[in-house]
Amino acid sequence: MATTILPDAPAPAPAEGTSTLAGSRRGDRLFKGVLTVAALAVPVLMAFLVYELYVGSRLAIERYGLGFVAGTTWDPVAEEFGAAPLIFGTLLSSLLALVIAVPLSLGVAIYLTEFAPRAVRQPIAFIIELLAAIPSVVYGLWGIFVLIPLLKAHVFPFLRDTLGFLPFFQGPIYGPSMLAASIILAIMIMPFIMSVAREVLLAVPGSQREAALALGATRWEAVVSAILPYARSGILGAIILGLGRALGETMAVTMLIGNRHEIAASLFAPGYTMAAVIANEFSEAATDIHFAALTYVALVLFLVTVTVNAAARLLIWRVGAGGGGKRS
Amino acid sequence: MFAGKLRGPLALLGLLAAGVASPALAQKLTGAGATFPNPIYSKWFDAYNKKTGIQVNYQSIGSGGGIRQFTEGTVDFGATDGPMNEAQIQAVAGNVVHIPTVLGSVVVTYNLPALAAGQLKLDGTTVVDIFMGRITKWNDKRIQALNPGVTLPNMDLIVVHRSDGSGTTYVFTDYLTKHSREWKDKVGYATSVNWPVGLGGKGNEGVTQQVKQVEGAIGYVELIYAVANKLPYAQIKNAAGTFVAPTLESSTAAAGSVKLAKDTDFRVSITNAPGKDAYPISSYTWLLVKVDNKDGAKAKLIRDFLSWMITDEAQSMARELQYAPLPADVRALIAERIRTLRADGKPIAMN
Predict the structure, then answer these.
(1) Which region holds residue B216: left if phi is over 0, alpha if psi is between -120 and 50, else beta?
(2) For the segment A131-171, what is each residue's pLDDT rounded down to a tens digit?
(3) Looking at this predicted complex, what is its ipTM?
(4) How many cross-chain Cβ pairs, A to B, lie less than 8 Å apart?
(5) Domain boundaries, chain A
(6) Whether CATH 1.10.3720.10 fits A64-321
(7) Which residue among A74, A261, A286 sits closest to B191, beta carbon to beta carbon?
(8) I want to staple A201 with a disulfide (CB 3.0 to 4.6 A). Which of A24, A113, B187, B325 is the partner?
């Protein structure tokens, strides 16, 4: 598209000034028009997506209504569908993944920008960013063959022995579980959070750092009191990016979560997520209502993702505004 | 390797040529459906292409997708592991015939280090009790009664099932339904069901890994997959009262022992077959073909392919890939049925 505009602008240049201006105006208008169409395409596409999902799931919406999100049974034979365990599984696995991934990735980002020797900064950042390029099915296989045996033999029994008084760490240990899926998710979203957080920390002006140190702060105090608050909204943005990835991740999760429609307190118990059930059952959904129920799940997943992201944006906006006002 | 590399571009060229040259010739068929028979279908279509030059493009998108695309008319034929139900047949105004192609069997696999492979014996009601969650220990007296002289450990029984919709689940739950009224009422049979207990593994490989990693686990996988991965399997008591190991022969024997009427629509379940040598958890897999195809050229192509599919040549290819071939009398019935296919109301021309 750019090629059609670029030759257009310099063409009238040899003529007098007014026509050059007119030419560039015409070019500008064209350029603006193209960009507007491109920008409008996104919301239109989104509306179309929601509409398609709605049409596809109408049969299920009419039959189950809003009770769908509260129902706990998923029975394709009796044609009884409820998505509560799926919504629970999606939110819990993503939240747990954040709990694990955020401190780790922030730690790495801070280390790489503030403490690491200059020579290793680039290589380490590069390697972590490479993790983002691994296909999720590979994470899933690695999870099945390496992570689960490791968790089952060492980590889970340790957790049960030390924290077994909490309901989250009780019950039989199978291997595939909510916790295993959350850990693989954490590993998968870490590179995203880490690399964005690193960029944000790099953008903190040197003066901020120097001022803190000049006032006698230790490096730790400088990070906590001067650098992190400055980068706060950017870091939140990084976390939301990770959350978005975690909510939608499908393949690796379904390979590790145990795929059971159940809301269990124990993190050792198997669970299920919305994305996983769609991937599992869509191709073999023979009846119309089963198909519609899966599409309904997709619609709910879409709404949950939008809501969570909107809430997070709001949070950034408030933190950004509040933080900026106080500091400056 | 070279041939493999070349095949892609060549096929693409062929596709283009066929598309551009003349669609009227239509030396091309498209089909979609079941994933389970995909390896043998790919082999057949490749061999048939070399033999006749006719191209068949098959997408293994799953049985549900196969039925849907067949109903919508976006493919020339469908393929499914579970037959269409009455409502689905109504949706195509009855213009469909199920043609069996090969047989598949489902194996009960387990992880008990104390037991040698093939040593465990189970029957239908016990398998129901296990998958219902009523038997929770390996040394339960119901299992012990079937395995006299075998020391079963006092270990938790952990059930593993398929989480993805699958023909394997369809066959297995169909078998369980025949053994328990309660299973029929509470769970039923389909490509995905609401399992009373257990963990879900994605695909045969997912189930296998979970069984392998958990001592005391029990699950079900396709026979082909179990053979290729040398998984331990249980012998299952059949309707005649003998314990039978899952093999290609016992699967074919199951199909052979269920006699089909002359006017059968081939939508028959052969789980719990009556034969003495029959393995009880077996099933046909089907191609879905129009009885009366408006497109005469395609009707002929399909008819010719089906006639070739039931020859010894094609059926022995199935055996090489560990699919149980069809018994002779079923092949004879299919040959007869193929003759009744129509092209826009008229009989299809013989060559």
Answers:
(1) left
(2) 888 999 999 999 988 999 999 889 999 999 999 888 899 88
(3) 0.76
(4) 101
(5) 64-321
(6) yes
(7) A286
(8) A113
